[in-house]
Specification:
Elements (H helix, E strand, L loop, with lengths): L1 H14 L2 H4 L4 H43 L1 H16 L2 H30 L1 H6 L5 H51 L5 H29 L2 H7 L7 H4 L9 E12 L2 E12 L3 E5 L6 H8 L7 E6 L2 E2 L5 H7 E4 L10 H6 L6 H11 L2 H6 L17 H15 L3 E5 L7 H12 L5 E5 L5 H5 L3 E4 L1
Parallel strand pairs: 3-8, 3-9, 6-7, 7-8
Antiparallel strand pairs: 1-2, 1-4, 4-5
Helix pairs in contact: 1-3, 3-4, 3-5, 3-8, 4-7, 4-8, 5-7, 7-8, 14-16
The protein binds adenosine-5'-triphosphate.
Adenosine-5'-triphosphate binds next to helix 11.
């Protein structure tokens, strides 16, 4: 069941779009997939098994009581109704406490992840103690949320227990009256008391457990906040570029108060080479993100061979465009897996691409070559080596449009120029380079250098 919950959640994550995914920090997803799944186990699935057991006890005891006198069943039925209503007084509060608890779990995971990722910065500034102070507050908030939940669950349990006790006394009195009226034998009075105790004790447990079980529903509701992207399925699949990508009168803002691009127009023609330059924060990366269909909330138009981006299947668009970031993520897997990422090419094609991106030196240094395992986020690689891996990934795609977002900045000038020259020499390639260090010889070969 854990596997199914996680699989459904990962399906949701993998099928959402770029903007929806980044609506939450990664740590929130970590919390969903770990803390929340544990909560679903502890309060959801485990309770379900208890409740099944308790309901079996109740049903069998009711049958036994029925053999003494039918009227006992009526008393039990009325009291059961009252017992089932008692926890309803607490359901809303319990749900709220459950949500608060999962939110605090998310907050703690977020803080812990954030501060541990910043370990190097804090350490070099001589501030390692900040790790404690930054996480203690969220840890305390989580503890408070857990106590609040326990208090509500405890109050509910106490109320149901009192109703249960009164109900057991009521059945005993009823049985005693039946005995006095000579309707049941004396032994049935003590047995009725025993079965009443079984019924109401099991009911006490079952009602509290059902309430706790339902308190995990808000977690599933929370998962629904991550919408699955269904737009692409309705749209047109993208084929290799024949003519041009045209941006027309485009306006874009991450935050409505601060527009990044205003009335921006630009054309990228097939097989031509471009550079985007400009001050830091001027919007160069944003333009690439728009071109690759990652940012979709803009006004104006982007057209791919005349077709509006809004009508295109953006997944298939991304198969036509290789987008190379400045700091690519390196997975904790072999170098080969890091390059292929599930795609298939022949060994000779792979070797040729590695040669082209200048990754040979790194492979020669690694103990198992291409099959050496890299650490999480490539902590044992240099920035330049990571960028070469990213370039190989892009070339494996075989896409004829390539967008480089300062993708060679960690390499020395010569290596960076070599790679850029290699891409410029490819007549099939449509190339856009975002850079702060445009070498004159490279600039001279470009179709256009656009200043943002
Ligand atoms: N995800 C984001 N959310 C909010 N604002 C953002 C986001 N990404 C970028 N911005 C803002 O948008 C503006 C343009 O950013 P962008 O990264 O496109 O600039 P850039 O020209 O590529 O900068 P640099 O040369 O430093 O990489 C900046 O003011 C930046 O703060």
């Amino acid at each position: 069941m854990d596997i199914k919950v996680r699989r459904d959640l990962m399906t949701r994550i993998s099928e959402t779009n770029y903007e929806n995914f980044h609506h939450f920090p990664e740590a929130t997803y970590t919390s969903w997939l770990t803390n929340d799944v544990n909560t679903i186990n502890d309060y959801g699935f485990s309770m379900f098994f208890f409740v099944t057991n308790q309901i079996a006890n109740i049903v069998l005891s009711i049958f036994s009581l029925l053999t003494f006198h039918y009227s006992l069943l009526i008393t039990v039925a009325v009291l059961t109704g009252i017992m089932l209503l008692a926890p309803k007084l607490f359901t809303r509060r319990l749900n709220q406490r459950s949500v608060a608890q999962t939110k605090m779990n998310e907050e703690l995971t977020k803080q812990v992840t954030d501060v541990l990722e910043g370990f190097n910065s804090l350490f070099t500034l001589g501030l390692p103690k900040t790790i404690q102070t930054k996480t203690l507050a969220s840890s305390q908030k989580l503890a408070d949320a857990r106590i609040d939940y326990a208090k509500t669950a405890g109050s509910m349990s106490a109320t149901v227990n009192i109703v249960s006790l009164l109900s057991q006394i009521a059945v005993l009195v009823h049985a005693a009256l039946l005995f006095m009226a000579h309707l049941i034998p004396a032994g049935a009075v003590s047995n009725a008391s025993y079965f009443a105790s079984t019924i109401f004790t099991s009911l006490t447990g079952a009602t509290a457990n059902i309430a706790e079980m339902s308190a995990v529903q808000p977690i599933f509701d929370k998962y629904e906040q991550l919408p699955i992207n269904t737009d692409d399925q309705k749209c047109q699949s993208v084929t290799p570029l024949e003519n041009q990508i045209a941006i027309q009168n485009l306006n874009f803002a991450y935050d409505q108060q601060q527009p990044v691009l205003q009335n921006f127009s630009w054309r990228i023609q097939k097989n031509k080479k471009y550079a985007l330059v400009g001050d830091s924060g001027s919007g160069k990366s944003t333009i690439l993100n728009l071109l690759v269909g990652q940012l979709t909330h803009y006004s104006g138009q982007i057209r791919y061979d005349g077709q509006d981006y809004q009508r295109l299947d953006l997944q298939s668009l991304r198969r036509q465009i290789s987008f190379l970031e400045q700091s690519p993520h390196v997975f904790n897997a072999s170098l080969r897996e890091n390059i292929l990422l599930g795609r298939e090419i022949t060994e000779s094609q792979l070797r040729a691409i590695i040669e082209r991106a200048g990754l040979n030196q790194l492979i020669a240094k690694l103990p198992q070559g291409l099959d050496s395992i890299l650490t999480h986020n490539g902590q044992d690689l240099s920035g330049g080596q990571k960028q070469r891996i990213s370039l190989v990934r892009g070339l494996v795609n075989g896409a004829e449009i390539m967008l480089l977002d300062e993708a060679t900045t960690s390499l020395d000038q010569r290596a960076s120029d070599d790679i850029e020259q290699n891409l410029l020499d490819d007549p099939q390639l449509t190339l856009v380079i975002v850079t702060h260090h445009l070498h004159e010889t490279i600039a001279a070969q470009l179709h256009q250098v656009l200043q943002i």
